Amino acid sequence: MTAVYVQEPGTRHAEATAGQKAWAIAATVCDPEIPVLTIEDLGILREVRLFDDGGMVPAVQVTITPTYSGCPAMDAIRDDLKAAFHKEGYPSVHVELVLAPAWTTDWMTDAGKAKLQEYGIAPPSGRAAAGGLGHPSRGTVRLTLAVKCPQCSSLNTKELTRFGSTSCKALYVCQDCKEPFDYFKVL
Fold first, then answer.
1. Where are the alpha helices (DSSP H) in the chain?
2. Which residues pair with 130 in a beta bridge?
3. Residue pLDDT, tens place only, 43-98
4. DSSP 3-state assignment of 163?
5. What mean pLDDT do residues 8-31 have?
6. Model confidence pLDDT, tens digit, residues 107-160
7. Is the CA virtual torsion 179, 119, 183, 149 positive or negative?
8. If phi over 0 gives left and psi between -120 and 50 gives alpha, with beta otherwise, what is residue 51?
9. Could you give the C-alpha distances from 72 to 98, 113, 161, 172, in angstroms and in order?
10. Non-local CB neighbours of 43 within 8 Å, separated by 6+ positions
């Protein structure tokens, strides 16, 4: 018997099912590169599946989607997921990485974006694609929006380099307070 639980944004039930409890365990795992964000905040936690593999406790399969196909944090996240489930008494844990559909900053939670801001990283502004399906030949228009400084909230900012401390961030500087900061790019 397989029980699948996929968390829908904004849904909470008074009494948690086994699948919801398993989701909650996975949702405690933090991103090793941005430790104030959980993998749920980032939107890379896609599915938690409980299934009978003949043991006394159901086995767990967790599906995650990396922010980039070569994201170096995936091994650490896989290990942290296994440790979190082992700590809660689940001896059999499988973590699957899926690349399709590709992760997008649109999957980040509003709470996650607020945590980024508080941590000093400008959250992604806008949607991943405007006016189409994500490709210029399909009528997509890429919009460049002003990036707000996480220190002073000024919009008078400038990109210094397209790649910051990680591939998913760009390095910016505020022209008003003169502080450099990472901006989590819209993908």
1. 18-26, 39-42, 74-87, 110-119
2. 141
3. 999 999 998 877 788 899 999 999 988 888 999 999 999 999 999 999 999 999 99
4. coil
5. 75
6. 999 999 999 999 999 999 866 554 444 444 555 555 567 899 999 999 999 999
7. negative
8. beta
9. 15, 21, 20, 23
10. 103, 104, 105, 106, 107, 108, 109, 112
Quote the pTM value.
0.78
Q: Residues with Cβ < 8 Å from 142, sequence gap 6 or more? A: 129, 130, 136
C-alpha 92/C-alpha 4 separation (Å) is: 16
Total number of residues shown for the chain: 187
Which domains occur in the chain, in start order?
2-97 (3.30.300.130), 107-184 (no CATH)
Report the chain's terminal Cα–Cα distance, integer Å: 37
Question: How many other β-carbons are positioned within 10 Å of the β-carbon of residue 11?
Answer: 7
